[in-house]
Amino acid sequence: MKVLVTAGPTREKIDAVRFLTNRSTGKMGYALAEAARDAGHEVTLVSGPVALAVPRGITLVPVESAAEMAEAVKERAPQMALVIMCAAVADYRPKLVVAGKMKKREGDLVLELERTEDILKSLGRMKPDGQLLVGFAAETDDLLANAAEKLEKKNLDWICANDVGRSDIGFGSDENCVTLLGRDGRRYGIGPDTKRAVAEAILEIVTDSGQ
Ligand code: C5P
User: Fold this and answer.
1) 146 CA closest ligand 1 atom index
2) Is position 22 annotated as part of the catalytic site?
């Protein structure tokens, strides 16, 4: 299968030396990409800035901002049988990017932010027949209800609900524990286990559902 995975955070520029980002390390997305490769799939990994080694045997497309990720993903998605959006894409970016380094001034500074494109929602709208679309829902509250709502709203086949309020799993850790919710109402609890093992379980369930 041709598989596209996104991973990591995005960086949204404030000026030449500053940016907004989040705590994503990319570990879950890289584990998914590597597990898909080892299962024999042809994998493209669109990755925000992370400190992880470039995986062998995978086409890596490095990006920085949500806009760059949107462009890279939307260009490639139509050719893919499976798309997994694991990246922690910024929801907002500075409305104006200052050229050069912004000078310090007296008093407070207000940063005006604007929404970024919801890439997954766009993919849900342009989804070709037969393509499997998988999202992640990183939540601290009402995990399953919010995930189920996203599954519906973004026209997904599966969503992985990830409780990021716990420090032992989620962002930065080597372990994860997710609930995989299917469009057809199926529900699987996966983990706690290594991100690699969680990735393998997700892939097995999702690719089986596409046959
Ligand atoms: O709505 P929320 O941001 O919680 O949804 C999370 C899912 O949507 C993840 O799969 C994430 O990769 C994707 N997403 C996206 N573009 C955004 C924000 C989130 O593709 N701007």
Assistant:
1) 4
2) yes
Residue 98 lies in a domain: no
Residues spanned by the domain of 145 = 1-90+111-205
Indicate whether residue 143 lines ligand 1 (CB < 6 A). no
CATH number at residue 187: 3.40.50.10300
The mean predicted confidence, pLDDT, of the chain is 95
For residue 170, the model assigns a pLDDT of: 67
Report yes or no on 104 lying in a domain. Answer: no
pTM of the model: 0.96
Ligand 1: which residue has its CA nearest to atom 9?
Answer: 136
Residue 39 lies in a domain: yes
Q: Is residue 35 part of a domain?
A: yes
CA dist., res. 164 & res. 140, Å (int): 6
Q: Which of 22, 146, 162, 176 is catalytic?
A: 22
Question: Which value does ipTM take for this structure?
Answer: 0.96
